[in-house]
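call fold(seq) -> tokens
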Amino acid sequence: MHHNSEQFGALLRDWRRLKQVSQLVLATDADISQRHLSFLESGRARPSRDMVLRIAATLDLPLRARNELLGTAGFAAFYPERPLAASELKSATEALNRILAHHDPYPAFVLDRAWNIALSNAGAQELIARHADKTALAEMSSDRPLNFMRVMFHPKGIRPRVRNWERIERILAARLRREAAVSPDSPSANLLHELFPDTGRPPVPKADDLPLSPTALLELETDGGTLRLFNTLTTFGTPQDVTLQELRIEMTFPMDEASDALLRGWAAERRQ
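ret:
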């Protein structure tokens, strides 16, 4: 990997500014002198591996970013990035599958960094199958994993069935924007350009769009009425693997008894 002190210093400075931390505060928290930190950022000093890890931990950088920072300083990645099917992640994958199965008949998805659906339960598969066009789904998943955002935004995906699309579009766009802002090379930045090609500028949430409760309500036109769902988002606590840190567990719940009955009815049909 090509590396030099200036490359490391520039990346460190970018992250420090993104985190809105001054040199003085970072130096104090990382227990180094401000002068030494200044030398690191300007490329006049080269960091040790331990120093890179200490500064990255102090800034609370994502594990992927810590590995990138190590790379620019000439060191190998410290945090592994294993596929979810790897034997080392077996216990984590089993836990995820248990969570998904336990949540059924309510839909639940495990999404990766790029919003691809890594795992899903029967309720989630049913939700997509009942609301998105089969041909469009086949096209979207022919050469790559099915992507949650693409399924939501596709003209023949779930979008036409969403009664409150204007609101949901702004909320989903805000999530993509937030992820892109935290990590500029994030796949969310690419998805923003892909999903909003005309302007490149997704709609900004209005004040009354931002949910007062910690959940956003999704209203779907479905066979048998309107399905009202809200979702919760869970992440792994203190993981030491890049893949695990970037996973999101999206669990949806019915907002009312009619929605609950619809989801349970679908599950009963599946079991017949």
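The longest helix spans residues 165-182.
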